[in-house]
Amino acid sequence: MAKPKKNDSNSLIAENRQSRRNYEVVDTMEAGVMLLGTEVKSLRMGRANISESYARDENGELVLVNATIPIYPPAAQFNHEPLRMRKLLLKKKELAKLNQGISRDGMTIVPLKLYFNDRGLAKLLLGLAKGRKNHDKRDVEKKRDWDKQKARLMRAKG
User: CB under 8 Å to 60, separation ≥6 — which residues?
Assistant: First the structure.
């Protein structure tokens, strides 16, 4: 007998909204996250913060740094550390591609979204990104505003 699907499939837990403003995202890929039981329960409550986090290579493994998953109150003494580094699960080719982008092109690995997939597993959408300067941010905002205004004008004229 098949299990009924849960309502939380593809449910968003946390999003890094400033990442697309502060960085020019060149490529994205999905990574699994190694979590403890209390961390998963805390995520199911929808409590996480990835806005100041980033990923880095450590001893040939990719780890998520500065991601905050608050403690799960009912777990009492068996809780996790909220700011601990969490290992990211990627295939070797994906890891090599990210490491190449970091070392050769001077890019950064930025987490974009943290969510549960269809199977109920916690996944992290990573972006390989270049940092933007302030004048670049202004140019992008001007272009986006102009595109919106142009679309409005085209709709109004028919």
Answer: none
The token duo for 148 is 């919106």
For the chain, how many structural domains are there in total? 1
The tokens for 32 are 């699994």
Considering the domain boundaries, does residue 143 fall inside one?
no
The residue range of the domain holding 55 is 12-132
Tens digit of each residue's pLDDT (9 = 90 or more) over 119-157: 989 999 999 988 888 887 888 889 889 999 999 999 888
First-last CA distance in the chain: 55
Is there a domain that residue 94 lies in?
yes
Predicted structure pTM score: 0.79
How many Cβ atoms from other residues are within 10 Å of residue 102's Cβ? 16
Three-state SS letters, 13-61: EEECCCHHHHEEEEEEEEEEECCCHHHHHHHHCCCCECCCCEEEEECCE
Average pLDDT over residues 114-119: 92
- Gap between the Cα atoms of 72 and 76, Å rounded: 8
Which phi and psi (to 5°) does residue 156 adopt? -70, -40
Question: What is the Cα–Cα distance from 32 to 146, expressed in whole angstroms?
Answer: 38
CATH number of residue 46's parent domain: 2.40.280.10
